[in-house]
Amino acid sequence: MFCKSCDTRFSSDTDFSEDIDGRSTTSAKGKRGKKAAGEKGKGGKGAGRINGHHQENGMENMMLFEVVKLGRSAMQSVVDDWIESYKHDRDVALLDLINFFIQCSGCKGVVSGEMFRNMQNSEIIRRMTEEFDEDSGDYPLTIAGPQWKKFKSSFCEFISVLVRQCQYSIIYDEYMMDTVISLLTGLSDSQVRAFRHTSTLAAMKLMTALVNVALNLSINMDNTQRQYEAERNKILAKRANDRLELLLQKRKELQENQDEIENMMNAIFKGVFVHRYRDAIAEIRAICIEEIGVWMKLYSDAFLNDSYLKYVGWTMHDKQGEVRLKCLTALQGLYYNRELNARLELFTSRFKDRIVSMTLDKEYDVAVQAIKLLTLVLNSTDEVLTPEDCESVYHLVYSAHRPVAIAAGEFLFKKLFSHREPEEEGAPKRRGRQSPTANLIKTTVFFFLESELHEHAAYLVDSLWDCGPELLKDWECMISLLLDDPLPGEEALTDRQETALIEIMLCTVRQAAECHPPVGRGTGKRVMTAKERKTQMDDKTRMTELFAVALPPLLAKYAMDSEKVTNLLQLPQYFDLEIYTTGRLEKHLESLLRQIREIVEKHTDTEVLEVCSKTYHSLCNEEFTIFNRVDIARSQLLDELVDKFNRLLEDFLQEGEEADEDDAYQVLSTLKRITAFHNAHDLSGWDLFTSNFKLLNTGIENGDMPEQVNTHTHKHRVKLYEHDTLSFSESSTRKKQMRAFCMMCQRYLTNVNTAVKEQAFTILCDLLLIFSHQMVSGGREHLEPLVYSSEDSLQSELLSFILNHVFIDQDDDTNSTDGQQDDEAVKIEALHKRRNLLAAYCKLIIYCVVDMKTGADIFKQYMRYYNDYGDIIKETMSKTRQIDKIQCAKTLILSLQQLFNEMLSDLGHGFDRSASSFCGIKELARRFSLTFGLDQVKTRDAIAMLHKDGIEFAFKDPSTQGEGGPPLNLAFLDILSEFSSKLMKQDKRTVHMYLERFMTFQMALQREDCWLPLISYRNSLQAGGDDDTMSVMSGYSSRGSSIRSKKIKPPAVTAGTSAAKRKLPEEESSSSEVWQQSMQTPVMLPSPHLTSTAMRDPKRGRDDSFMGVYPLPQDQHSQVTWMLAQRQQEEARQQQERAMNYAKLRTNLQQAIRRGTGLMEEDEEPIVEDVMMSSEGRMDDLNEGMDFDTMDIDLPPSKNRRERSELKPDYFDPASIMDESVSSIGLLSPCV
């Protein structure tokens, strides 16, 4: 038996030789009980190698690690070379193998022969730990790059080939495998992640190779047993006793070998797997679970039982997605083999709920594999999954993540559509509603309706497309279900079911024609293969041939149903129109056009009319010969509609106030039809301006025009201008008409009806954008006469409309009617409408249609309406800054000035600076400052201009108290200081000089609270300046200049520091307390200027940025200079003390970390946290009674032996899971 803690040395008295059969002459069974498992042989001195280096295989001075890493030699030849070396001197060969594992872990150290002979494994590992490179935490298994990715596969291959080549002799010599397993067990228990990771991977791959050896032994034992039984059953005369003895001897040897393999696998399983499947590192846990899945699949007779399955079940609760993924892939390999299903019954019953819950895993890859696993479970038996389990997977066909939806679609298809009616051999193939797929199509419809997600039919079709294309492309059956009468005894589809079937049919046609997922699922268009393109063309041809004939009768049957007609009329958009000519289907085209015309005449629903317009547009393709037919039909329809509209309008206007609702409805319905055709067709050939303008003018004069007539007339007018732009240049009358229409819309801005005003506003914004100076770009200078510039009055009215109808509280919105003010859906719709109005106006600002300064009224609402319009306003600021940085900055400061004036009008000039309104303006200024970004060079001019305008505004209005009082707007400087951090150092000096132009000598001497904004602003300009800016007295006192030196220069407060200060706790203090904690700012002498050297303490909040108030001495020239110099020296001394304290603290902290960890590696995951989280929260209970004596790997006997009569106890029962031998692994040892 192997032991994880065995560190005794192997003796070297074991002779190694092979007989002619390839077996070791040493009796493994007899010596195993006498030797300690961890002993090392002393062996020879290592002739032929020096420190493990090859000297005789053609790769001199190259270690085994380098050979495997380069991967230039075949792995079998590498292993053969090592075996030859082992036969020559096994100690030297083993030393080379040990160094191979050490170096594969990334360790720079080398195990010498002296260490190998005289030191224990634990001592060697401890010595190698000290050899690690502390500068890098990477090691070969984690280093990125193709070379190291290949190294990992070469590393695993080497171990597999090594065991395979040694399986007949060397692995049974009780030396090589004992040494390797003992080393890997010790390394896997190391606190160093690289050792633990590499040795665990090696041990698991070694275990997999041993499983293959055990499987081969089992097969050989079965064959030997059969040969023995056959020979023994012969009659005595024909029986060969010598052969019986040989077979008995061979069976005995095979049994001994199998016992040794069992001991090796038990040592690896108990010494490595049991501890590392709960490791703190997810990669290590994933390796263990992946390999145990391989063992159970390879050698199910030995490993596929509850003793090993429970590890996979527990690990399905792992917190890392990659580990859960390995659990599912391991189980898929087991459930795929139906012969193993009987052994998985108990596991399935215990962990089925967990697998079902993993279909909603936050990791999409895990969810996909969980659904695939449930599909395999479904294939094995239908009784395991309950209807509730299936329903939890069904709804995933509507998932936005396509792989999840595809997997769920396959599950749904297996569950609902896998049982088809068998067709009789030789019977003719049934078509239409008699086909075998008819019931499956009905089942799809029923499922779609029961899911109650009717707008997601395209998602359902896409989910089933890969697994059931024949079902979804059976359009002939769908058409038959809609048109043909039901068979005797068959229940007809209801109206709701027919609607769902038509929607599904449309989605299948679209999917076949476009060959890409619906919106929201695809990651972008991919290049189709030649086979996919051929399938696409074949599908389009077949669908066109079918629906070209069937669509007219379908439209005739459902002509009055708006929803069905809307879906049916979208089908021609996916037709191959050439089929109408090549297939001699012109009569069906005539029938289709006739049905569309009747639908236009019968319906007034906007959606139906627009889809009719799109269908005409799809059929009117000049590339096909059917263009003339469709164009004539469309022109005839429009002629009739325009004539009818003119006639009805004339009657309607003549009646005036006597017009009734029926007349208004007739005008409105005809106007709707004409408006719908403007979406996709050019109606410039019909003169519709005069009639529409007359209708709008009448509405202005009389004021009693119905709301819908007004709105649709406006819509129709703007579409006229969109389509007729090119023809406007041909006549100056068109320009006059456009201007007249704009004036008409401007007059409608004062309409009583809100919907009409909103429509007029939207149209005005669109027209101003269409006919702005942008229209002449791109070589369209001939449209210059049509450029229309808005007047100031129109801009003012548009801005007033925005302020009165967009920036309002939700409760003040009058758009919600019928007592639905509290209806969330109505509120959301109203907010969406207001957002569209604001976006329309912001586009005018962005494209310079209106003056950028008008954006100030928009920008100032940024904080108040941040949740509703913050994204729109922020994007507008970004775009305007790209157009003109300086003008954008002037607009921002203008918005702050407007808010400041509004505050003064409400609170008066003696307001408290702690008032919420003033704090709100400061916060808005801070937000504006953040939008300028970190690149001060790009925004240099804009920020400087912003400060210039702000200073001028602050000193614009003098004090009402006379020359000694502060200017009325002086408090604005406190707001302006929020932008000081965006100034460059040299610009701060310039702005400070500009500020001093507005200051008098008396202002610099003032220290009252009302002057604190000036003090604060001056300090913000002086903070972070260079030596010249931070001088005490520039050119005034030689003493002041000499005192300042590099040693005592105060630290510069950078913009980053200033921004960080806002997060300090001091920010929570009230503004009134901040202003009271004022600090001294030096006075400004007449000439030369005295500039402050007071620096903010980096460890204090931004609100403590003022110096204390000191009385000025009488001798200002000498006393002030001395005072400031002393202040500067004190600050320099404090700065040096803080730096020294920080260095000491850093050193002590580093030493404490080294003492606490003991090793250099740093794992990201928590060390003491239990990485296995049970779904029931009872992992501690599971750890209490686990009996690992039942976990000994007991290979099953020969199939000719007596079978085991019963299963082992239920190892999923918490009462029989863990024993004391595993209680120590509940919490891992600290892993650095």
Automatic annotation (TrEMBL):
It is found in: Nucleus; Chromosome; Chromosome, Centromere. One of its GO terms (cellular component) is cohesin complex. GO terms for molecular function: chromatin binding. GO terms for biological process: cell division; chromosome segregation; sister chromatid cohesion. The keyword Coiled coil applies. Residues 17-55, 1035-1102, 1182-1206 are annotated as: Disordered. InterPro entries: ARM-type_fold, Cohesin_Scc3/SA, HEAT_SCC3-SA, SCD, STAG. Residues 1182-1192 have a biased composition (Acidic residues). Residues 214-267 form a coiled coil. Keywords: Cell cycle, Cell division, Chromosome, Chromosome partition, Coiled coil, Nucleus. Signal peptide: none annotated. Pfam families: HEAT_SCC3-SA, SCD, STAG. Residues 273-358 form the SCD domain. Part of the cohesin complex which is composed of a heterodimer between a SMC1 protein (SMC1A or SMC1B) and SMC3, which are attached via their hinge domain, and RAD21 which link them at their heads, and one STAG protein. Belongs to the SCC3 family. Component of cohesin complex, a complex required for the cohesion of sister chromatids after DNA replication. The cohesin complex apparently forms a large proteinaceous ring within which sister chromatids can be trapped. At anaphase, the complex is cleaved and dissociates from chromatin, allowing sister chromatids to segregate. This is Cohesin subunit SA. The gene is stag2b.
